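Field reference: sequence -> structure
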Amino acid sequence: MSSPALTQPGYKPSFAGLRTASPLLWWTSLAFLALFATCLLFAVIDPRLFNGISVWVKPAKFYLSLAVHMLTLCFGIMLLPQRTRKSRLVAFVTVTMVSMAIFEMSYITFRAARAEASHFNTSSEIAALLYNLMGAGAAAIMVVTAILGVQILRHGPASLLARATGGSFILAAVLTLVVGFTLGGTGSHWIGGDRTDATGLPIFGWSTTGGDLRVSHFLGLHLMQVLPAVALLGSGKLLAMAIAGGILLTAAAFAQALMGLPLFPA
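Structure field:
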């Protein structure tokens, strides 16, 4: 059975709960956060640039993003009853998530260390193969995220928080896959404008001179964190507005990028 506290509107997650929900995801996320900090350190001491910014910026962003993703999955698993947590399906979800994340980050870090592109790199047969495998791994991460969302909706408590969490996992997976397949089809996240991050927005790096599909990717993916956070406020009406707003913002950013327009012009 799940804890009665999980059904209460004012329930707040705890670090202890996240750790015990899925030790594998918890410890992998902490390792990724440590590697995120390491990449930031390398960015300070290594002068090499790629696409106008430090070669270590990209792996740093991905380590952070995947760590947040895994911690969010821990939160979702925490909403499940013990029997479902221990099921083979949830074990499959966690092992797949960690395996694909480690593979993806190993390849991105390897390419960064060589000051080479990881994404859209088809410069050789092996590079094209590894890039395609990385793309398949990213898709697998979103598929298992949606699977976990279904399990939360089916077996989680009858609470606004559980519905928001399970639904957000599914919604984020769908939106991210749509943008991801578009990225793969266009062969670049840039659509028009300068093909460099040097003139991009601070921190995010999104283009200020042309369209950038990374904006809609970011917005759609992080509904996983936004919608459960809104649900913690206990208002179903506010949650419905957040869902509609999140979908509309993601769709608008997606359409804007396809038209070659920057989110914020330079």
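Note: Confidence is low (pLDDT under 50) at residues 1-11.
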